Amino acid sequence: MGTYFGTPSSAAPAEAKTVNASGAMPPGDPLCSLEEWRARGPDECISRLQEVPAARVQCLRAPNPSAPDSGFGGWFAVEPTWSVNGRVGRYTRYGYAGYDYTTYDIGCADTLMHPDHKLESTIANGEFMIATGIVAASNGLREKAWNPGDLWAWANPLVQGATQAIYTRVFSVFGVITIGVIGLYLLWRSRQAHMSAALTTVGWALLVLIAVTALAKWPVHSANIADNALVGTLGVVHDAIGPDTSQPGQPCNDPTPGACDDTRRPAVRAGDTAVESLLYRNWLRGTLGSADSQTALKYGPALHRAKSFSWKDMQSIRDDPAQRQGIIDAKKREWMKIAEQIRAEDPEAYEYLRGTKGMERVGAGFVAIIAAVAYASFDIVASLLVLLGFLVIRWAVIAAPALGTIGLLRPASAGIRRLVNAVLAAVFNVVIFGTGAAIYLFAVDLIMSTGSLPGWLQVTLVLLCGVVGWVLLRPYTRITQLSGRSSGSALLMARPTPAVTAAPVAVVAAGSVATGVPESRAEAEESAVVRRSEAQPAPDHGAEDATRVRREWSTADVPEGAPGYAVYRPASVPHQATPPTIGADEPSRTSQQEARTEARAETR
Questions:
Q1: Mapping DSSP to helix (H, G, I), strand (E, B) and coil, where does residue 553 land?
Q2: Beta strands 514-515 and 567-568: pairing type?
Q3: pLDDT per residue over 141-187, tens digit each?
Q4: DSSP3 helix / strand / coil % (the chain, rounded to 5)
Q5: 255 vs 264: CA distance, rounded Å
Q6: C-alpha dihedral over 57, 61, 67, 71, to 10 degrees?
Q7: CB 360 within 8 A of CB 123
Q8: What are the φ and ψ backbone dihedral angles of 553, each rounded to 5 degrees?
Q9: 217 half-sphere exposure, CB direction, 13 A CA radius
């Protein structure tokens, strides 16, 4: 009556409002604002929402929550082994759970909703399955590539056993023979009295002997040293230019010192960025119609939590399976309370939540696939090359004793040198592509977090960033070579190439002096003239040919080793062109060759 006739109702003073034992406000007003949802967390704000009436609950079917490692994306998911109470993202807390669509509030009979809506939701779910699998593959490869100690733990017995077996049965046996060959080689070289060459040979043999012995003594430790150095380098690079972690994904209520610190590895932080930008935001577009509206910002995280199991929930269920149904019922109640509040505040967003906007869901799923492909194209290639780099290091440790058996002898050390070159190139490639991946993830985070950019432009920019990164780093895709061409030894043993200066070429007529004609050009032309005269005799054309001057080049009368330029003179006495006879030019040609040979001998 007070509401209809304007009579103010009696209300208790504000300071007389009761609070429950946990400090949260009772159901009803005041509702949490957007800032309170972010600061206080979903637990307190959901508790302030009104309960759904029992008559309405009978016809509502809230979705069942899914596990973090469910579906196609769950094949790549790994449960975190660090604390998730601090600054963690949605991927770290929930994995790949909840990224699908369901129909809601379609009445007590399923036939009340048009069947096309269910079909469209099914198609959108298939698209999100593909997008989730692509992003999960990228995240899984990156996490394993940047954590070689966990990935290659299975290979430690192989590295240990194979390296020591080769050292004992190959290097220790045949290495003695190689050392004997080195002694004979030094005795043979002693006749030439080359002390520097002898010391170089002995020093090289000692270096290879010490290095191979150390690798055989501690093969796994040697590989781990390289791994830790490279991972530390990648961590520093990612901390410097990677995605920002100053804002926590969820509020931390743990008073324990250090419990709220961010203990995620750089690769995991990148996974949080990718899932948040590529999967969660597109899921919101199909669930609430937008990823940036007030409704999506306020209730989107709570809706996703209500239909997803966290890793902590899964651990509680494993410890006590009887809690499973209680956790599911609690999440369903949260979904219904949030949905009722959305129904009251934003009816348009509630239609998306019900599933009546099926084609919009299909479009959001298609955009998710395009964004996932654009993002993962470069990231997967970079992770694979980093993985290959760490694998080359382990194979090098195994192969070092075998190649070092012959490599003790410096003239036969090509194999061990190539092995060292491959390791150096692998180290450089790991650092280069790790840095490129960190820069790329930073660019993706900036692009996806810029609200002024439309969704299609964000996807396009992500794809262009990947293409540019691939074009710039493509010369380094050869895992055992540097700069895409030269091997690792070229970086240490490069020699300057002497510049070749092209001498000017001049052709002069008979009776003049030709200068600046390269000697190689003159000899080539002379040989060409001789071959033509031998192959095709010149025909006789009578008086007309008698006035024609035959041009020939004579041999230079300067030493053969004269640099740069030479002076040539043609035959001083021109002669008439006469039909040559077989064997007629043989004496003159022979005399010219003898004269040339004598001149060269005198020059030497």
A1: strand
A2: antiparallel
A3: 888 888 777 778 888 888 888 888 888 888 888 888 888 888 887 88
A4: 65, 0, 35
A5: 19
A6: -170
A7: no
A8: -105, 135
A9: 6
Side chain identity at 339, as an amino acid letter? Answer: A
Q: How many CB atoms lie within 10 A of CB 543?
A: 6
pLDDT of amino acid 25? 46
Confidence at 378, pLDDT banded by 50, 70, 90? confident
**Range with the lowest mean pLDDT among 221-235, 324-338, 525-539?**
525-539
| Tokens standing for residue 208 | 């290879």
DSSP type of residue 570: B
Residue type at 157 in one-letter notation: P
Three-class SS state of 209: helix
Rounded Cα gap, residues 441 and 241, in angstroms: 9
Provide the residue type at 428 as one letter.
Answer: F
According to the model, what pLDDT value does residue 462 have? 86
Dist CA 268 CA 329 (whole Å) = 31
Q: In percent, how much of the chain has pLDDT > 70?
A: 67
For the segment 103-119, what is each residue's pLDDT rounded down to a tens digit? 888 766 554 555 666 78
- β-partners of residue 515 are 567
Say how far apart CA 474 and CA 469 lie, in whole Å: 8
Angle CA 410–416–417, to nearest 5: 80
Average pLDDT, rounded, for the chain: 74
What phi, psi does 568 have (nearest 5°)? -120, 155
Peptide bond before residue 30 is cis, with ω within 30 degrees of 0: yes
Quote the CA–CA distance of 25 and 44 in Å, as a whole number.
8
Q: Answer positive or negative: Cα dihedral of 338, 368, 241, 144.
A: positive
Question: Do 84 and 311 form a contact (C-beta atoms < 8 A)?
Answer: yes
Report the candidate in 597, 594, 534, 545 with the shortest Cα–Cα distance to residue 574.
545
